[in-house]
């Protein structure tokens, strides 16, 4: 039996036939990667200047604006469906903020031990 790489999930390899919207993610992957880089870059800069919470919030906003801008452009060019405006907009802000909150909880726990 041949090994089928398309059935493995390693973060960027997915089966595009399992969920109809997966094929649209191919357009967004480079922007998601750049958005994650932007999240880390902005957090480091703002955290050093103003502290943890301003760093979390400003980096979450930066990622959301970045991803939403490109998603909106692809939507206007009729490349992506409207659903992606939400998933690459407010959902990105919420998940980035929640990730920052979880990181804070983990840092707090290990700092106290």
- Helix fraction, binned, reads over 70%
User: How many alpha or pi helices?
Assistant: 4
What amount of the residues lies in strands?
under 5%
**Could you tell me the number of beta strands?**
0
How is this fold's topology laid out?
Elements: H1 22-50, H2 52-76, H3 83-87, H4 90-112
Quick recap:
With 113 residues, this protein is mainly alpha-helical.
Describe it for me?
The protein has 113 residues and is mainly α. It has one domain. The protein has four helices and no strands. It has helices at residues 22-50, 52-76, 83-87, 90-112. Helix 1 packs antiparallel against helix 2 and helix 2 (52-76) packs antiparallel against helix 4. The longest helix has 29 residues, at 22-50. It is elongated and about 50 Å long. The protein starts with 21 loop residues before the first helix and ends with a helix. The relative contact order is 0.12. Mean pLDDT is 84; it is low at 1-10.
List keywords for this structure.
113 residues, disordered N terminus
């Amino acid at each position: 039996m041949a090994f089928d790489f398309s059935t493995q999930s390693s973060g960027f390899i997915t089966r595009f036939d399992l969920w109809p919207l997966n094929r649209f993610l191919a357009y967004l992957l480079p922007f998601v990667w750049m958005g994650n880089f932007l999240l880390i870059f902005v957090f480091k800069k703002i955290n050093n200047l103003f502290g943890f919470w301003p760093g979390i919030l400003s980096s979450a906003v930066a990622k959301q604006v970045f991803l939403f801008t490109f998603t909106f452009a692809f939507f206007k060019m009729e490349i992506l469906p409207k659903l992606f405006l939400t998933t690459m907009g407010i959902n990105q802000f919420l998940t980035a903020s929640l990730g920052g909150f979880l990181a804070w909880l983990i840092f707090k726990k290990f700092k106290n031990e």
